[in-house]
Every structure is written in structure tokens, then in C-alpha cells.
Amino acid sequence: MAHARFQIHRLGELGMTWRFLSANNRTIAQSPTPFPDADLCRDAVRDLRERLAEASVVVARGDSAQLWLWRVRIAGSDVAVSSRKYHRRVQAAYASRCFLELVGATGISDAPRLLHS
């Protein structure tokens, strides 16, 4: 049975990024910036999991004044961003809470899978 999980993707010359997928394979969140290699990307995922209790969520309008985005911050730095935009602020806030709950439910031993994109 499928479950929520992290995946690491190669971005060509840009480096690596992680994505967090729901059980039905929809991307919920992603890393805010690329990482030079897979090990640093895995370290970022591990840090996010271990410091989840310190996380705060910021919901704000995106480039379009009509759409909303969310981001998760730890110690003043963005550590995750929404993978899509939402028509309502309440939808973005709900999606961010779901992300935090799902990350909290994933096991530390669930190592992110490296996918070659």
C-alpha cells in the first residue's frame, strides 16, 4: 500500500531537489531551493523531520494576487514550499497542516528515494 513519502530528483546541472508526495502520488511540497548533491538533499529532509516541532507556516499571496501559497520555516529559513497554488487562503492553510502531519507520520528510517529525472 502506498504512503506519503519524500523523493529526491535530479535537476540536471542545477543539482538535486526533494519532493513530498501523498499516498496518491500527488506532490504536496518541495524544497525551496536546489541542493548541490543527493547527500545534502537527504540531510535537509532529515533536518526537517527532526525539527518539525520548531516549524512555523507562512501563508501568503503568490505572484498572482488571487492565489495563495504556503511555506514552512524553521529558524527563519524556508525549508519547504507548497507545490501548487490555492484559490483560497483557508485551502492553503489546510494543505500546510496536512503536510506537517504527514511528515510527522513518516518514519525517520524511510530514506528518500533518489529518482533520475
- Strands ordered across the widest β-sheet: 4-5-6-3-2-1-7
What does the main sheet amount to?
A: 7 strands, mixed
Name the beta content range: 25-35%
Total strands? 7
Number of domains: 1
Return the CATH class: Mainly Beta
Strand-pairing-aware structural class: alpha+beta
Distance between the termini: 24 Å
Average residue pLDDT: 89
How is the CATH topology named? PH-domain like
Organism: Actinokineospora soli
Protein name: DUF1508 domain-containing protein
Describe the structure.
By secondary structure, the protein is α+β, with helices and mostly antiparallel strands. It has a single domain, classed as PH-domain like (Roll). Helix content is 26%, strand content 32%. The chain has 2 helices and 7 strands. It has a 7-stranded mixed sheet, covered by helices on one side. The longest helix has 17 residues, at 89-105. The chain is globular and about 35 Å long. It starts with a strand and ends with a strand. InterPro entries: YegP-like_sf. It comes from Actinokineospora soli. This is DUF1508 domain-containing protein.
Topology:
Blueprint lengths: L4 E6 L5 E6 L5 E4 L7 H13 L5 E6 L6 E7 L2 E6 L6 H17 L7 E3 L2
Parallel strand pairs: 1-7
Antiparallel strand pairs: 1-2, 2-3, 3-6, 4-5, 5-6
